[in-house]
Amino acid sequence: MSFSYYLPTKIVFGFGALQSLRDEAGQLNATKALLVTDKVMVKTGVVEKVTKAMGDAAVDVFDEVEAEPRIEVAQSVGEQVRRGSYGLVVGVGGGSSMDMAKVAAGLATNPGPARAFVGNNLLSKPPLSSIMVPTTAGTGAELTVTSMVTLDGHKRWINSPLLLPKAAIVDPELTMTMPRGVTAATGLDALCHNAEAYISTLASPITDSIALEGVRLVSSNLERAFDDGTDRKARESMSLGALLGGISLQAKMVYGHSIGYTIATRFRLPHGVSCGIPLPYIISGCAATCAPKMSRLADAFGVGVEGQEAAELGGAIGKRVIELLKHLGVPTSMKELGVKEEDLPVLARECLDMYPRPNSPLAFDQRSMEGLYRTMWEGQLPA
Ligand SMILES: [Fe+2]
Asked: In the chain, what are the domains?
């Protein structure tokens, strides 16, 4: 066995954690910060709350982050951060705001247009310090080396370990007012991060332990948080499950996320919904290949009985995820979503060509990927 694991980000977790922002910023000697967020966070008063928590530091706000931000937004936040003499970038919001904050920190010290950094390890200079304050429970962007940008209508990534923030302040209080749809979508994203990381061939004993606990927390609390947003225990568990998903992500995602990308832009789906739809089929489809690991995964999902074969356990997990999707009002098949049967080969080709996963436990070619899409289209778990 061999693996490496690297996480230099300080994590401050718990109700009231936001109050530590001043100290964390102070330790970075930042007297002026750029807060990167979206207009909803301004409107709902979150930005004001975060600004207050910054204490005496001067704060400018960039609030033009959009969902699935285009490269132009990255360029724009980069220009703002380069104009001011900032010592710190603070990302406040969901994955898009945090991703743009990480990009801003990188562009502050690395000259060139934002699109020049799309790819792997293209930043050469250490970025400005950054602190992330998630307000959803799902993306894990506060702990990842990656920032997603939309380039020419497709999802692309700026990846660099240099993007890892100095601190992540995860305060479940900030998620209490999250609307039901956002709770569902981001919660599904957290479930996918933990579950896909667990079956990735890059998984390690560290990511496995974290991913299993992440699956357990999300699987047993997402419906509760969705049904009653004021359930503090459920919200806290979801924030923790999402945080663990951010760490699990080090094992990288498998084809659930890739398939999600192929349908997200066509049907304007939130990221977590697009990944949640394929999840039951991916897990049950890969169960036999991941046989030694399935019993612990089934336990984390709260399903399965002793002595069941891997394929049966995979089927039981698949059924549990479908039950969860139905509870959240999310389509459980591509047919229900509105995908046309004749488009399946095109989607399968796009999935393999644009979003390949060498770390998938099961290798796919065009024929087998088309088969998987057909299964998902029909909504039939593998027997
Ligand atoms: Fe994701």
From this structure: 10-175 (3.40.50.1970), 181-378 (1.20.1090.10)
pLDDT tens track for 105-133: 999 999 999 999 999 999 999 999 999 99
3-class secondary structure per residue, the chain: CCCCCCCCCEEEECCCHHHHHHHHHHHCCCCEEEEECCHHHHHCCHHHHHHHHCCCCEEEEECCCCCCCEHHHHHHHHHHHHHCCCCEEEEEECHHHHHHHHHHHHHHHCCCCHHHHCEECCCCCCCCEEEEEECCCCCCHHHCCEEEEEECCEEEEEECHHHCCCEEEECHHHHCCCCHHHHHHHHHHHHHHHHHHHHCCCCCHHHHHHHHHHHHHHHHHHHHHHHCCCCHHHHHHHHHHHHHHHHHHHHCCCHHHHHHHHHHHHHCCCHHHHHHCCHHHHHHHHCCCCHHHHHHHHHHHCCCCCCCCHHHHHHHHHHHHHHHHHHHCCCCCHHHHCCCHHHHHHHHHHHHHHCCCCCCCCCCCHHHHHHHHHHHHHCCCCC
Ligand 1 centre distance from Cα of residue 145 (Å): 13
- Give the pTM: 0.95
Whole-number Å distance, alpha carbon 139 to ligand 1 midpoint, is: 6
Structure confidence at residue 346 (pLDDT) = 97
CA 193 – ligand 1 centroid, Å: 6
Residue 26 alpha carbon to ligand 1 centre in Å: 31
Please compute the mean of the pLDDT values over residues 153-166 and round it to a whole number. Answer: 93
What's the 326 CA to ligand 1 centre distance in angstroms?
20
